[in-house]
Design goal:
Strand content of chain A: 5-15%
Number of helices of chain A: 22
CATH architecture of chain B: Orthogonal Bundle
Oligomer: heterodimer
Radius of gyration of chain B: 23 Å
CATH superfamily of chain B: MetI-like
Number of strands of chain A: 17
CATH topology of the largest domain in chain A: D-Maltodextrin-Binding Protein, domain 2
Distance between the termini of chain B: 48 Å
Strand order of the largest sheet of chain A: 2-1-3-16-6
Helix content of chain A: 40-55%
Number of helices of chain B: 12
Shape of chain A: globular
Number of strands of chain B: 0
Number of domains of chain A: 2
Largest interface: A-B, 43 and 35 residues
Largest sheet of chain A: 5 strands, mixed
Distance between the termini of chain A: 59 Å
CATH topology of chain B: MetI-like fold
Structural class of chain B: mainly alpha
Largest sheet of chain B: none
Low-confidence stretches of chain A: 1-6, 12-21
Order of helices and strands of chain B: HHHHHHHHHHHH
Strand content of chain B: under 5%
CATH class of chain B: Mainly Alpha
Mean pLDDT of chain B: 91
């Protein structure tokens, strides 16, 4: 018995001592604590990639470029690898990745880019190996972002970010009895978070062009991304999805999948564009030339009551030095009581507004098929997105890393770590997580030549916004151009790719 | 025979460099323009004149060319007038002449993209300083970048600000090189400053003026950074110039073959237009001189 006790004690000590002795403190890397797992700091530290080089292409600093570089230097330090990071402005990123692909040049092992380009890049991407798909951190990625990472049935993109468009509004106005009274007096309605785009417009109009926050400067209704070729196409999709994405009509949002006939000039899209054109009346001066940066600083700086797009404006509003910190909240994008039914050719009425969350493109990453360092490349991406790093990155607004795992939807993380108040945090996580539950989602076009389709759409929408054409004329022009693009790229090729998008939208996966 | 061969040998390095850096890219662009190279079909297949026939029905390209012509000619004329005026100011003996000469050149030394970003901030209608100043002066708010007409004016203003120093520099060099005798003769004849300018200075500056205008027109027709940063070609297509449109088609849409055909057509049109314009300018300036 004594012998048994002794041997048990010795073996326990033998097993526990080295663990205690080897357990390292990685807090110098800015994380709270390492989270054990395949790609943890400790696991990465145990790898030796000395004498090997990893080439990465990413966006310019800070958005995604800064975390890429930060985790690259950590990876270098931990594994002994040499990591080269090339930063490229967004406008050049596509061609800087595509040209080496087409030239069969092994220029980069790891790529960071916009997830909507998957249709173009997929032939050149290495599928994510099963061992990385089975990690706890990958399993915690929400269904939306697994869908975004997947092409057909294969995961070819490594999720590092979660993006969506949602509504942001000022709680100090909505909760202010004086403002509620004023709104009621002007409209006869109670002031509440808009459920439809029509309500959005009505509220924005009332709160446009006067100093409602008492800072001596005029305030305005809505800040939106309207500048052509500055991601405006995404704002347009947000504006039209509620009118054009019918929950009971399957088989395509941008095209009729059967015929590949563009739907971009159908009444749902046209009405959305008409609303977009009208919205210029309640934007700040120059608001119809706002790019994403302007939208972020306009709403984030307290100039407008509403905004909708990616997380950035919300995060900007919640910066520690922001004068509207904890005066903002999130909500789903407004919906519509009328939705165009392209099967019947009529507007269907909905008592509860139809909502169609736009799972807009965001940052993603992948490994090149031509890479000779695929093992190291996937290890880097897995390390980049390990739990400890992600929790760190989520707290730094400029990094552009937004919630994409179920574990990120805990309001206490945002209240405890970032000092957000309960409403700001709870509406944020509720809005974001709620989009994952929707069965009426809209995804980006994600077909080969998506840049051509979106560029054509942005030009048409911009012509309507500038008053050069009516919304119908502008979208008729876009539809005609889309037909030509489909013919040039090949109808069957586009159709096959689009079927993967429709499968996501129609919840066939 | 030997001398001529020696000459050729001496010329060869220069010719090779010329072929490498000018002729080859040009020939390659022409070859690419006959291919369908785009996001799906990399490489140099042969599709004949399809890109060129598509181009003829591309109204956005032709509209962008017309717009470019208006913006380029407008900015260059204003730059010429301002540049000539500034050069005349510091040509003669004025206090702090050297200081002003350097000061006038500063905009040209700045980086176009950076300056466009700064100008964009200045023009920002709700957050920028320009409208604040105008409001303070009681002049009201100006929709600098959000209406078609003012967006064109804003693009032209930035171009004029940046490139007037170039005109100033060349015209000042021209003024400094003029012979003194005609001016002395005019002074003896009792010609006043206006008469001296129109009868002596301007005619003597004609060759330099023509060269300067042509060089600047070539440069102005490539306007890209200002449009890219200030307006992205908007509102609508109000400020979309040919270079910006070719950039969109080539590098954003990745229609390399088609963008090459646009570039080649643009090049041919520019050569034709500038040749005609140069002849017109020579006739206008020189005939006046002779008269």
């Amino acid at each position: 018995m004594k012998k048994l006790l002794l041997s048990t004690t010795i073996s326990t000590l033998l097993f526990s001592l080295p663990v205690a002795a080897l357990a390292q403190d990685y807090s110098k890397y800015g994380i709270d604590e390492d989270v054990p797992g395949k790609c943890s700091f400790a696991a990465t530290d145990a790898k030796d990639y000395s004498g090997r080089t990893l080439n990465i292409i990413t966006h310019a600093v800070p958005v995604m470029g800064e975390p890429t570089a930060l985790h690259a230097s950590q990876f270098e330090e931990l594994t002994g690898a040499k990591v080269n990071v090339v930063h490229v402005p967004f406008g050049d990123l596509f061609q800087r990745i595509m040209i080496p692909f087409q030239a069969k040049q092994n220029a980069y092992d790891v790529l960071f880019y916009g997830s909507l380009w998957v249709g173009d890049f997929s032939p050149y991407l290495e599928p994510v190996p099963a061992e990385y798909q089975n990690t706890a951190s990958m399993k915690a990625v929400t269904a939306n972002y697994k869908d975004v990472a997947t092409w057909g049935k294969t995961m070819v993109q490594f999720p590092v970010d979660g993006d969506r468009h949602y509504l942001k509004y000022r709680t100090d106005i909505f909760d202010n009895p004086e403002m509620q009274k004023k709104f009621k007096a002007e409209t006869g309605r109670d002031l509440s978070v808009p459920q439809t785009w029509e309500e959005y417009g009505e509220i924005a109009t009332v709160f446009n062009g006067w100093d409602w926050d008492g800072d001596g400067e005029k305030n305005y209704g809505s800040a939106e991304v309207v500048k052509r070729d500055d991601l405006m196409f995404s704002a347009f999709i947000s504006r039209v999805s509620a009118y054009a994405k019918h929950p009971d009509v399957k088989g395509g949002f941008f095209f009729d999948l059967e015929t590949m006939e563009p739907l971009i000039n159908t009444p749902g899209f046209v009405r959305g564009l008409e609303m977009f054109v009208k919205a210029q009346k309640y934007m700040p001066p120059g608001g119809n030339n706002f790019g994403l940066g302007d939208e972020i600083f306009s709403f984030g700086g307290g100039q407008t009551l509403f905004s909708y797009s990616w997380d950035d404006a919300y995060i900007q509003a919640m910066q520690k030095d922001s004068r509207i910190r904890n005066k903002v909240a999130a909500a789903p994008l407004p919906g519509s009581n009328e939705v165009w039914n392209r099967k019947t050719g009529k507007w269907d009425k909905f008592a509860t507004p139809n909502r169609a969350p736009y799972i807009t493109w965001g940052w993603t990453s992948a490994v090149s098929k031509m890479s000779e360092n695929k093992d190291m490349a996937f290890d880097y991406l897995c390390f980049f997105s390990n739990e400890a790093n992600t929790l760190h990155d989520l707290q730094i607004g400029r990094f552009g890393v937004n919630p994409y795992r179920t574990t990120h939807f805990d309001p206490t993380f945002w209240t405890d770590k970032l000092g957000w108040n309960t409403k700001t945090a709870s509406t944020y996580v509720k809005t974001l997580s709620g989009m994952d539950d929707s069965k009426n989602r809209v995804f980006d076009l994600r077909v080969p030549g998506v840049g051509q389709f979106m560029s054509s759409m942005a030009a048409g929408v911009s012509e309507a916004l500038a008053g050069q054409k009516t919304p119908q004329e502008a979208l008729d022009g876009v539809a005609e151009e889309w037909r030509q693009i489909v013919n040039r790229i090949g109808k069957e090729r586009v159709k096959k790719a689009y079927a993967t998008v429709v499968a996501l939208e129609d919840n066939l996966r | 025979m030997l001398v001529s061969r020696q000459k050729l040998i001496f010329l060869l390095p220069g010719l090779l460099v010329l072929v490498a850096i000018i002729i080859f890219p040009l020939l390659f662009t022409i070859r690419v323009s006959f291919s369908s190279w785009d996001v799906m079909y990399p490489g140099l297949d042969w599709i004949g004149g399809k890109n060129y026939s598509r181009l003829f029905s591309d109204s956005r390209f032709w509209e962008s060319l017309q717009r470019l012509a208006g913006i380029a000619v407008g900015t260059v004329v204003i730059e010429y007038l301002l540049g000539f005026g500034l050069a005349l100011l510091v040509w003669k003996e004025v206090r702090y002449k050297r200081f002003f000469r350097v000061l006038f050149l500063v905009p040209m030394m700045t980086t176009p993209v950076i300056m466009s970003v700064i100008w964009r901030t200045i023009f920002h209608e709700s957050l920028g300083p320009l409208n604040n100043i105008l409001g303070f002066l009681g002049l009201g708010q100006v929709p600098w970048l959000s209406t078609a007409g003012m967006a064109v004016v804003s693009v032209m203003m930035v171009e004029i600000w940046q490139w007037t120093p170039f005109m100033f520099l060349l015209l000042l060099a021209g003024l400094l090189s003029l012979p003194k005798e005609p001016f002395q003769a005019a002074a003896i004849d009792g010609a006043g400053p206006f008469r001296t300018f129109f009868m002596v200075t301007f005619p003597l500056m004609a060759p330099i003026s023509i060269g300067t205008l042509i060089i600047r027109l070539i440069e102005a027709s490539k306007i890209m950074e200002t449009v890219y940063v200030l307006t992205s070609g908007g509102p609508g297509t109000a400020t979309e110039t040919s270079s910006y449109y070719i950039y969109i088609r080539g590098l954003r849409d990745f229609q390399i073959g088609y963008a090459a055909s646009l570039s080649v057509t643009y090049l041919v049109l520019m050569i034709l237009a500038l040749t005609i314009l140069a002849k017109f300018l020579v006739r206008a300036f020189i005939s006046k001189d002779k008269a």
